[in-house]
């Protein structure tokens, strides 16, 4: 027999390894899931608490791993985990309880054991009203309930084992309180901006008064103006309406007049005579 070359044997071994990995991945598809870590809060001793956490962690991981091949065995593991928590007086974390059916206690995994649908919510939806009532109850008991929140959507997880719909909270947002406008300093009352429809405006009253005054010819007396738009009682005065002041003529000094006359006579004597002889 002829032996295969080393390169061919190496390639065949690599193909076999990859094929076996694919088969394992198809049977156990939950190796890459990030499952929530189980942390318990109880008054028991620390040693027993750590043992319970390890036991719960093993059952939780094993149930997720075996669910694609045997859903019945995964359901038995989850039921034993919940029964053990009930007997020891321990409450499981909310991240674990969200994936356990409320009716039959089965493990809820999307597309395998449950169908998930996202439903949008409004301010007046049933889930938000329930959340508001719970917040008011906590505020009445403890005096504070934290920042107000509303749900934008919810998750409807329908169990394929018992067809029960489990509702889980989705995305939430914090409601910011509305800011109130501060009153202006020195202003005690707000201005009357809203007026009744039946109440006439001041502009219409002014126009009515002007129309009545023009239609009555015998009324020659000037009435007192009712508003700034009414005509004034007398025409406005101007700065130059007063009597004109007469300018005083300056009296000529006699000495100056005598000097001017002597000078003019002297200048006339110097001119040549142009009269015809």
Automatic annotation (TrEMBL):
Chain positions covered by the region annotation Disordered: 177-256
KW NADP (keyword) present: no
Keywords linked to the UniProt accession: Metal-binding, tRNA processing, Zinc
Keyword tRNA processing: yes
Taxonomic superkingdom: Eukaryota
Pfam families: Rpr2
A single GO cellular-component term on record: nucleolar ribonuclease P complex
GO MF term list: metal ion binding
Any GO BP: tRNA processing
PANTHER family: RIBONUCLEASE P PROTEIN SUBUNIT P21, RIBONUCLEASE P SUBUNIT P21
Family: Belongs to the eukaryotic/archaeal RNase P protein component 4 family.
Protein name per UniProt: Uncharacterized protein
Organism from which the protein derives: Globisporangium ultimum (strain ATCC 200006 / CBS 805.95 / DAOM BR144)
Source taxonomy: Eukaryota, Sar, Stramenopiles, Oomycota, Peronosporomycetes
């Amino acid at each position: 027999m002829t032996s295969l070359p080393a390169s061919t044997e190496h390639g065949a071994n690599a193909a076999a390894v990859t094929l076996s990995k694919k088969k394992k991945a198809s049977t156990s598809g939950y190796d890459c899931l990030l499952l929530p870590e189980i942390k318990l809060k109880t008054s028991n001793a620390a040693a027993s608490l750590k043992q319970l956490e390890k036991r719960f962690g093993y059952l939780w991981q094993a149930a997720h791993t075996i669910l694609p091949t045997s859903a019945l065995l995964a359901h038995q593991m989850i039921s034993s985990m919940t029964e053990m928590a009930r007997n020891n007086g321990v409450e499981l974390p909310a991240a674990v309880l969200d994936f356990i059916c409320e009716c039959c206690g089965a493990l809820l995994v999307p597309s395998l054991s449950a169908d998930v649908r996202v439903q949008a919510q409004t301010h007046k939806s049933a889930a938000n009203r329930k959340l508001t009532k719970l917040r008011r109850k906590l505020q009445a008991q403890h005096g504070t309930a934290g920042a107000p929140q509303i749900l934008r959507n919810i998750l409807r997880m329908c169990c394929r084992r018992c067809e029960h719909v489990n509702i889980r909270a989705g995305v939430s947002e914090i409601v910011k309180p509305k800011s109130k406008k501060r009153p202006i300093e020195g202003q005690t009352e707000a201005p009357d901006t809203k007026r009744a429809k039946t109440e006439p405006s001041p502009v219409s009253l002014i126009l009515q008064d002007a129309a009545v005054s023009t239609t009555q010819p015998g009324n020659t007396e000037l009435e007192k103006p009712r508003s700034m738009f009414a005509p004034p009682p007398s025409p406005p005065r101007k700065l130059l309406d007063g009597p004109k002041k007469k300018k005083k003529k300056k009296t000529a000094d006699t000495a100056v007049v005598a000097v001017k006359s002597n000078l003019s006579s002297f200048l006339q004597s110097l001119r040549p005579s142009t009269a015809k002889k």
